Amino acid sequence: MIFFTILQYGLLFWFSYWFIVSLFGFGKAGELRNKAPEKKFVILVPAHNEEAVIGNLVQNLGKMKYPKELYDIVVIADNSDDDTAAIARRHGAIVLEHFSVPGEPKGKPYAIKYALEELPMEKYDAVCVFDADNLVTLNYLQLMNDHLLSGERLIQCYLDSKNPNDNVISLGYAASYYYMNRSWQLAKYRLGLGNAVGGTGFCVERSLLEEVGWTAKSLTEDLEFTVQCLLRGEKATWCHHARVYDEKPTGFLASCIQRLRWARGHWDVCFKYAGPLLWRAVRKLDIRAFDGFLYLINPGKIVIGAIASAIFYTAYFTNVSIVEPILPLWVWLGLVTFNFIYVSATLRDSAHKIDWFRAIISLLFINYTYVPLFMWSMVTSSRRVWVRTEHTKNVNIEDMRL
Could you give all domains of the chain from N- to C-terminal order, each with its CATH number? Predict the structure, then answer.
């Protein structure tokens, strides 16, 4: 009984923290003052056998509303044995062909590391990273220029979807991103807390990259780099008005494989950096480090919360006195209802017309199927095997316009 009482207070703190932060995600997102183009960018696109989609992205990037002399597009054909490199060259990209030696680890972090070592990085002020299946709004570089000139050093843009309405899987992914973009990313940016780099559509100042180094080798290199920056006192920030569209999986098995990789990477980073982040939070009274610590241990909260929910609702609706609830049922149901309302509000940000009811059902399906994946990934976090996600959505940026 004592254990479950403590557990309830812990979950109540967690949900209350998230609830208070999320309130700052409502309303119209502000914009920075537009500044003259000044920063020079290199755009890195790691691509492994992406001939179906790489052409659309390179064409898209070539149309940026930013001076052409101030950015280069570099496609890293990473262990590709298809026409990825040839198609990228044909559309005007600089192509680096990277082939791993026997025994060398494979994956996106190593492709990026190769490019950073091969390119004349002193030419550039900042590095942007996209996945090969992406499309991006044409204001992206201009807005990154504005953020960099405002003193920000690591910026993540809005994460959207190419194909939210394909089926329940892709819609569940997309709805979770729409929700997080406001309730977590925009809200924390307004509060001055650190944001989370999402693996694609992010921009990092070259000097910060040199200070931290590109040593992130986990299955979630984006999260690891975010935490490495936090440990140096550098937070990631958020750009709500430039967005990147990526292709969500539509098959349940493919979804599970991808999410298991993400979950393993999250646990790996958590085990490695949660302690140092908490120590920094205590030693320097750094609220951003504490916020990052809470984000790292979030998978544990999801697993414990799911188990606790089953126990609590059993106690509420039966005579089995497993635990004495510290709050009435209407409070917990109120928090759940608030989340549903929040999701419906965030769907308006989508470039697509989304059915609210289907989005809620899809989001619940994705979230609850995450629970066993987080459980299994916790005990298999040392397995750093990268499995490619197939991309076939051949569309143009014009199809994604709001």
Answer: 2-25+270-379 (no CATH), 41-168+194-249 (3.90.550.10)
